[in-house]
Write a structure and sequence with these properties.
alpha/beta, 11 strands
Length: 298
């Protein structure tokens, strides 16, 4: 169930090698309507060593949807390849209708490319913030995306900093517009976690251990509200088989990581896969699906 989260393979260069290192799927990007250089401030990423986390201020750096679509069209992968789409990070997409048009351009570029699409409404490092976490604006976006024929699973990626009222509104819209699932979660901007190192920069979002409790709580909450109605992908602070298994038992069918690989090394991918087998055996389960949500349903 282990995949590479969006934000690592920004230029879609690694698809050919992700299977051999142990990933069963990847989320490429995020990819925007136009090519995007990202935020110009350097550096754009810092290691928070005490907490095994990262502070990230990239700002959606990527080559743009047209180029990425061409690249992926020419590749044959032995894993499931998805694409995360977002709106281009510049002032031209701040106005709601312009932002929606940019999302739609990126989304439309992958109708015949890739195995699934994630609509990223949760990047904390872009012009205009995260406007499409607002229910009214998100409905406008989903209504427009629904005019594009997308014959593959579509998921929404959410921020771990949303409150339950916001999450409930997003779930209702996901039902209305036939969204297949959620990626939970993206980076956190909250720095009141006792794990957080002193921040070297006052902007950006954090990945890794500092987001794990927030993301795990959201996975558990969404699963408790929907009970298998949506596919849930857990993401945030996964660096061991125990971390991945906790996401599964709280309702995630799949799990993604980046930061755990940065701190532990790429061998952690196969260690997590092997460890999950042992944890399933220990609890008497034959398949990962048998364990999904068991801690919520008890």
């Amino acid at each position: 169930p282990l995949g590479l989260a969006a934000g690592f393979d920004k230029d879609v260069k690694l698809v050919d090698i992700l299977g051999p290192v142990g990933f069963s799927f990847s989320e490429e990007g995020s990819i925007t309507g136009e090519p995007c250089v990202g935020n110009t401030r350097r550096p754009r990423m810092w290691r928070l060593k005490k907490s095994k986390s990262l502070l990230i201020y990239y700002g959606l750096k990527n080559p743009g949807c047209e180029k990425v679509s061409r690249i992926l069209r020419g590749k044959k992968s032995d894993i499931v390849v998805g694409v995360s789409v977002a709106k281009t990070n510049d002032e031209t997409t701040v106005e709601t209708s312009a932002g929606i048009a940019d999302y739609k351009k990126a989304y439309s570029a992958f109708t015949r490319v890739g195995d699934f699409v994630v609509v990223n409404i949760s990047c904390p490092n872009a012009f205009g913030g995260e406007p499409f976490t607002d229910a009214e604006k998100l409905e406008l976006l989903l209504k427009e995306l629904n005019t594009v024929r997308m014959d593959k699973p579509v998921l929404l990626k959410m921020s771990p900093d949303l409150n339950k009222r916001q999450v409930d509104s997003i779930i209702e819209l996901a039902r209305k517009y036939k969204i297949d699932g959620f990626v939970l979660c993206n980076l956190t901007k909250k720095d009141n976690n006792k794990l957080v190192d002193e921040r070297p920069f006052d902007k950006g979002g954090m990945s890794g251990q500092v987001v794990k409790d927030l993301a795990m709580a959201m996975v558990k909450y969404v699963y408790s509200k929907t009970k298998g109605e949506f596919l849930i992908v857990g993401c945030g602070g996964v660096s061991s088989a125990e971390d991945a298994y906790a996401y599964v038992k709280n309702g995630a069918s799949l799990v993604e990581l980046i930061t755990g690989m940065i701190f532990e090394g790429p061998q952690v991918i196969s260690e997590i896969n092997q460890g999950l087998v042992e944890l399933l055996k220990k609890d008497g389960y034959e398949h990962i699906s048998d364990a999904v949500g068991v801690d919520v349903e008890q």
